[in-house]
Design brief:
Blueprint (H helix, E strand, L loop, with lengths): L4 E4 L6 E2 L1 H14 L7 H5 L6 H8 L5 H17 L6 E2 L4 H9 L4 E4 L4 H8 L10 E3 L12 H10 L6 E5 L2 H9 L3 E5 L17 E3 L2 H13 L1
Parallel strand pairs: 1-4, 1-6, 4-5, 6-7, 7-8
Antiparallel strand pairs: 2-3
Helix pairs in contact: 1-4, 3-4, 5-9
């Protein structure tokens, strides 16, 4: 596996954003006199996006009312986006290794630009990402391969020279569609329905520490 570029999903793979999502969603529940949700239930829904999280909190609402709640939730999340969000514990060493070896890396996320940019303002990485492709950068998003191709092109490599790491079956599908190598981050926000058959990835990482060890070895080659 000749890898020259590492690409990450954002939420649940590179950054642990679940606590701030849980805070914002439960504040929304309180604002609309709805029972608060269990953190673990919210965590398992994060990778499915803001609408899925809003539906989790307000399952009986029609489309119009649900959108009102979603906008309220996202406003609170934007205002509190960096309360607890950090690089996943254990990934620091791997990211430092990439920086020391000058291996380019980037982010491909379905998170919209306005939230992604606000979030990344508060995060310091050992080296800056070479590319950030958001859910609204193009007219399509993962699992369509076009965001993957754009990230690879921006970094100056072919898709075959890139590894894409994600915590949702959609991420692995996107990487495969783009002809990239893929890795499953089992420590992320996996949906309950996700099983081994959903993850035809080249590599599997059970913890951020396992991923870090892989990145360190890559940097030493």
């Amino acid at each position: 596996m000749q890898l020259k570029c590492i690409l990450f999903d954002l939420d649940g793979t590179l950054l642990d954003t679940s606590y701030d999502f849980s805070y914002a969603l439960n504040q929304t529940c309180s604002d609309f006199k709805q029972p608060r949700l269990n953190y673990q239930d919210v965590r398992k829904t994060v990778s499915q996006g803001g609408l899925a999280m809003t539906k989790l909190a307000f399952p009986e609402l029609d489309e119009e009312e649900l959108e009102t709640r979603r906008q309220h939730f996202l406003k609170i999340y934007f205002e509190n986006i960096d309360r607890h969000t950090r690089l996943f514990p254990g990934l620091e060493a791997g990211m430092r290794a990439l920086a020391k070896a000058e291996i380019p890396w980037g982010i491909i996320t379905n998170k919209p630009t306005w939230l992604t940019e606000r979030l990344l303002e508060s995060i310091e990485f050992p080296s800056a990402p070479k590319t950030i492709v958001c859910g609204d950068t193009l007219a399509v998003r993962k699992p369509d391969p076009q965001p993957m191709w754009l990230a690879a092109e921006t970094c100056g490599f072919s898709p075959e020279e890139c590894l894409y790491i994600g915590d949702h079956p959609r991420d692995i599908e996107a990487g495969i569609n783009a002809k990239m190598h893929t890795a499953a981050a089992w420590y992320g926000y996996l949906p309950e329905s996700a099983g081994e058959s959903d993850w035809p990835a080249d590599l599997h990482f059970g913890t951020p520490y396992e991923l870090s060890r892989f990145l360190i070895k890559l940097a030493e080659q």
